[in-house]
Design a protein that fits this description.
mainly beta; four-stranded antiparallel beta sheet; globular
Length: about 280
């Protein structure tokens, strides 16, 4: 597969056609690489798009219009080959359309365009999902970007922390955490995924106090963090979520289901700013 680069005098971004994953977000002045490299010894993903499911259902199946469909954890977009349909100095657009393989897992025709736009040190990623059917299309959606920790190779994992722009409440290892603005990292803190429903504020930073990334999640209903004793941290804005326990309902009635009317397009964006 081919990869494509956009850059300015400060940073460089490289996006690969396979899974439309960001393979590099690099500071050209310091040499710092912010994106996780997909080392399979820890996790082969980098920053997958979660579609048409976030996580898995209780029985690992999608129940749609009286039929069942098997799709892997987080859906098929993360394993699909996209096509670059636009590439210039400031923007990359990757496209995925339904295929014989996707229809076995999700019985809808769709077009997904992912726009990567670089301005200064901020990469804005916009997702346009078009319903190509003569009926409404339910879908679930989320994001899963992973960032190197440490980013600065002179630092260590424990030098990093998550800093929220607004105090958050969440459950951590059965403990209710209230009004947290800073979560200091150690190898055990994010070994179990932390999920925040309806997070307050709009941004969270992963930083060592000097260098880091800031993710704007303002358009999303859930925010998750994961770091399975590995040299990366995932900051995951979700519009939907996996099953936390047994759920016996059809795909279109699940918590977190969104709908696109026939031949309409759904738009959502998030951004990553590096420092």
């Amino acid at each position: 597969m081919s990869s494509y680069i956009i850059q300015n005098e400060k940073v460089l971004v490289e996006v690969d056609e396979h899974a439309s994953e960001i393979h590099s977000f690099k500071d050209l002045e310091t040499g710092i690489e912010y994106m996780w490299n997909g080392n399979p010894a820890y996790w082969s993903g980098r920053n997958p798009t979660l579609f048409p499911m976030v996580g898995s259902t209780y029985d690992k199946l999608l129940h749609i219009k009286g039929k069942t469909y098997a799709t892997g954890n987080h859906g098929f977009a993360r394993h699909s080959d996209f096509t670059c349909v636009k590439h210039d100095d400031h923007e990359i657009v990757m496209e995925l359309k339904d295929s014989e393989e996707t229809l076995k897992q999700y019985p809808y025709h769709f077009t997904m365009d992912i726009h990567y736009v670089l301005q200064d040190r901020t990469l804005t990623i916009t997702y346009d999902i078009t319903n190509e059917n003569e009926e409404g299309m339910p879908f679930h959606f989320g994001l899963h970007p992973a960032f190197n920790v440490p980013m600065d190779q002179t630092k260590k994992y424990e030098d990093y922390q998550l800093v929220f722009d607004t105090p958050q409440n969440f459950l951590w290892k059965k403990t209710v955490m209230k009004d947290e603005t800073v979560l200091k990292l150690n190898p055990d803190v994010l070994a179990d995924t932390i999920i925040i429903h309806h997070p307050h504020g709009t941004k969270v930073s992963l930083t060592d106090g000097t260098h880091g990334v800031t993710v704007d999640y303002s358009a999303f209903e859930w925010l998750a963090f994961w770091s399975p004793h590995a040299p990366f941290v995932c900051i995951e804005p979700w519009l939907s979520h996996a099953d936390y326990g047994r759920v016996d309902t059809s795909y279109d009635k699940r918590d977190g289901t969104h709908f696109i009317e026939e031949h309409d397009t759904f738009h959502v964006s998030y951004s990553v700013t590096v420092k």
